[in-house]
Carbohydrate binding domain-containing protein (Polysphondylium violaceum), 151 residues
Amino acid sequence: MKFLTLFATLCLCVALSSAYYSPPCDGHCAYGETSVCYHDQPAVCLGHHRVVEQVRLRIQVTSVFIEDGISYKSIQVEIDNQSPGRITHIAIGTEYLQIKDTVSIRNVQQVENDFILPDGQVIETGLSYTFSCTIKDIHNPSVYIKNVIIV
């Protein structure tokens, strides 16, 4: 019986540790900083203002509507790559956004409270990539770059 209890506990620990999302290029930066990896180098923590010079986010509210008595906003987020390299990964923090449902998220993956590029998606230098979602109309939409890999 002790063996079964120990085995079940071990399986639960493995399951919980596997379910935790650990983004690539995580420099464990302080609040207000972004983890940036250049060309497979270790992560560097930069202030948001320095990252924004190279990778810009633009948010646009495309529509506002009410469904079942709840007010929603459809938003579009554009990632503009002005860095000298290709963006192969980006995690965009959402903090206060309350997503309507998973169906309303388009061209991006949601992992916990972050948006990340779909597998295999790359943003070349000088180009942009757009995704959209529908959020509850509680706050003005706000997103920020948590980490980015530029190669």
User: Anything to note?
Assistant: The chain has two helices and nine strands. Confidence is low (pLDDT under 50) at residues 3-21. The CA atoms of residues 6 and 12 lie 10 Å apart.
